[in-house]
Design brief:
This protein has 2 domains: about 350 residues, TIM Barrel (Alpha-Beta Barrel); about 45 residues, no CATH class. About 45% of the residues lie in helices and about 10% in strands. The chain contains 16 helices and 12 strands. Strands 3-4-5-6-8-10-11-12 form an 8-stranded parallel barrel, surrounded by 4 helices. It is globular, with a radius of gyration of 24 Å. The chain binds D-xylulose and cobalt (II) ion (CO). D-xylulose binds next to loops.
Length: about 425
């Protein structure tokens, strides 16, 4: 044991009346919700980058955190892993997620990066034998190093494409070795800054080839996890190609990848795209490409992707409603792609941020389950579309033609009257549960 979290107890469920800060008040892993344990519904993951690699910087100032592992090379990376697994244990976190750059020291070249990653993966593997925490997903950081400033798969320089492809190979290997359930690709710099120097058509073709190689390699090594793309419209690129769920689906369809790749949807990214989180989730479930979620929230005044921990129950409840309605997670889960504020210097801030967020999500899940089990909302939705069950409506869908329909409208004197969408009534029903 390191002494980083000294004096902080393992968190247990104590119920809503407990005043103990170091306890769960709503997240009760063993409580059964809609026939499944809460832990198995929510599948929480800790994000390595925010909790252990983020230094507390913002655009106006650098590091505020003083972590003993910073600048510590390989020894520091191992100390960081010790602390990470201690935190997973204290929280009872079932999963974690990482980028290569979060966990290993940066090497001078590809060979050194790979050696460093492999050494840490072995270190993780030994720890995971003694821990209940599993890997939700691994990924490659193809955006921080200056070599990626003009993109990775979409870089105009084929050597950078090659470096990125080689790096992704090592990260899929790492994820596979650690039993990861998914592999994520977030194209942070797969986009452009100006059309004056950009060949949009070529970049799309290159990105598609890259993704096909990822899928081929997955099958070649027998990795059974799901490949996920994480949509985001901008930040850091001015225009990012994976704008939102619909855009990603169109891209996958165009290049024949729609049965191989799903999406990891992030709350803050959905908002940046001008959508709501639940819209993106519902779009993905309706397209059959829903995979996993990155749970966080932005600062609604600044409009930036601030990656704060969720603290708004109604907001997460609607998201879980869409997830439960579609049957819940399979390989996916709830990854806290969220970081503590730069003034939150103490180790306990890390623990309490996660504890609070886990409670918020548990409340959201329970509210969503209650609304779904009550059934009023789904009954109202079904009733709204009931006309489509009629034989002539089905026939119109199957074999209708404009002129045939026009003849029927005339013959039967069809003269429909609009019906209320009953939105206020439905909102009132929803608010009984949240
Ligand atoms: C950035 C972001 C990433 C991805 C993984 O906005 O969300 O952390 O989740 O690369
Ligand atoms: Co994310």
């Amino acid at each position: 044991m390191s002494d980083f979290f000294k004096g902080i107890p393992a968190l247990r469920y104590e119920g809503p009346d407990s005043a103990n800060d170091f306890a769960f008040h709503h997240y009760n892993p063993d409580e059964v919700v809609m026939g499944k344990r809460m832990e198995d519904h929510l599948r929480f993951a800790v994000a390595y980058w925010h909790s252990f690699a983020y230094e507390g910087g913002d655009p106006f100032g650098g590091r505020t955190f003083q972590r003993p592992w910073f600048d510590g090379g390989m020894a520091g990376a191992k100390q960081k892993a010790d602390v990470a697994f201690e935190m997973f244990d204290l929280l009872g976190a079932p999963f974690f997620c990482f980028h290569d750059a979060d966990v290993r020291p940066e090497g001078a070249d590809f060979a050194e990066n790979t050696r460093n990653l492999e050494e840490i993966v072995d270190y993780f593997a030994a720890k995971m034998e003694r821990s209940k925490t599993r890997l939700l997903w691994g990924t490659a950081n193809l955006f921080t190093n200056r070599r990626y400033m003009a993109g990775a798969a979409t870089n105009p320089d084929p050597d950078i494409f090659a470096f990125a492809a080689a790096t992704v190979k090592t990260c899929i290997d790492a994820t596979h070795k650690l039993g990861g359930e998914n592999y994520v690709l977030w194209g942070g710099r797969e986009g452009y800054e100006t059309l004056l120097n950009t060949d949009l058509g070529a970049e799309a073709e290159h990105m598609a080839r890259f993704l096909h190689m990822v899928v081929d390699y997955k099958h070649k090594i027998g990795f059974k996890g799901t490949i996920l793309i994480e949509p985001k419209p901008q930040e850091p690129s001015k225009h990012q190609y994976d704008y939102d769920v619909s855009t990603v689906y169109g891209f996958l369809k165009r290049f024949g990848l729609e049965n191989e790749i799903r999406v990891n949807i992030e709350q803050g990214h959905a908002i940046l795209a001008g959508h709501s989180f639940e819209h993106e989730i519902a779009m993905a479930t309706s397209l059959g490409i829903f995979g996993s979620i990155d749970m966080n929230r932005n600062d609604y005044q600044s409009g930036w992707d601030t990656d704060q921990f969720p603290n708004n129950v109604p907001e997460v409840a609607v998201a879980y409603y869409e997830i439960l309605k579609a049957g819940g997670f399979t390989t996916g889960g709830t990854n806290f792609d969220a970081r503590i504020r730069r003034q939150s210097l103490d180790p306990e801030d890390l623990i309490l941020a996660h504890a609070g967020a886990m409670d918020v999500c548990a409340r959201g899940l329970k509210a969503a389950a209650a609304a779904l089990e009550d059934g009023s909302l789904e009954a109202a939705r079904k009733a709204r579309y009931a006309g489509w069950e009629r034989a002539e409506a089905q026939e119109m869908l199957a074999s209708g033609t404009l002129d045939g329909i026009a003849a029927r409208v005339l013959k039967d004197g069809i003269n429909p009257q609009p019906k209320s969408g009953r939105q206020e009534r439905l909102e009132n029903i929803w608010n009984r549960f949240v």
